[in-house]
């Protein structure tokens, strides 16, 4: 309840409006959508993601957090999972806790997540906003990127990685070891020392107003 009120006030302040109905309009939704939000005391995940896109799309780097993803499986009830959206991150592959990091949890229905991304489990998940066009056309700038720390190293899979103190979203190639972009204007990054490459999580899909499985 308190989180709902806080988020509503944040949205009203951001859009400089005075009602929840006006917030819905600013997000491209019908005014009547706000009625359902009030009744459930919860803003829909679609609306929260759209709001975060508007707020953070212009950042110059992907915003993630140095925080342990063990907490992503917090459950409101048996059908809902809260996934953290990382607003501003100073990423380390071991997710060392940083008290200055800001996150916002977004509620998702488990069945909805499973139908979108064919998930077998809902552990250690997170969402970041894609900055830049290096992975186009697969991932477009401004799309919400859903990742999971599953300890995999799939040939050709898309991962969030740390390399030479930079955070990148790239495809992983293992023979020879390198990172590639789907946008061919970006050069291949050769990995001479495997110890310099730290995998943070595997990209399982993107989430905008629509979604696609990768």
UniProtKB/TrEMBL annotation:
Gene Ontology molecular function: any one: DNA binding
Domain Peptidase S24/S26A/S26B/S26C: 122-204
Name the UniProt record assigns to this protein: Peptidase S24 LexA-like protein
Keywords in alphabetical order: DNA-binding, Transcription, Transcription regulation
One Pfam family recorded for the sequence: Peptidase_S24
Species in which this protein is naturally found: Campylobacter armoricus
């Amino acid at each position: 309840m308190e989180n709902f009120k806080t988020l509503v006030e944040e949205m009203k302040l951001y859009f400089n409006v005075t009602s929840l109905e006006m917030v819905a309009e600013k997000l491209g939704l019908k005014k009547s959508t706000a009625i359902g939000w009030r009744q459930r005391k919860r803003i829909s995940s679609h609306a929260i993601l759209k709001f975060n896109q508007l707020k953070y799309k212009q950042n110059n780097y992907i915003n993630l957090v140095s925080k342990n993803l063990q907490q992503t499986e917090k459950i409101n009830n048996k059908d809902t999972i809260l996934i953290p959206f990382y607003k501003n991150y100073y990423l380390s592959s071991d997710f060392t806790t940083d008290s200055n990091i800001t996150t916002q949890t977004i509620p998702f229905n488990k069945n909805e997540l499973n139908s979108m991304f064919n998930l077998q489990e809902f552990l250690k998940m997170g969402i970041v906003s894609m900055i830049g066009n290096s992975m186009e056309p697969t991932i477009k700038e401004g799309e919400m990127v859903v990742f999971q720390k599953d300890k995999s190293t799939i040939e050709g899979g898309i991962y969030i990685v740390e390399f030479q103190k930079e955070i990148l979203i790239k495809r992983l190639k293992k023979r020879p070891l390198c990172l590639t972009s789907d946008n061919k204007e970006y050069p291949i990054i050769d990995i001479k020392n495997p110890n310099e490459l730290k995998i943070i999580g595997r990209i399982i899909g993107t989430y905008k107003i629509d979604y696609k499985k990768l």
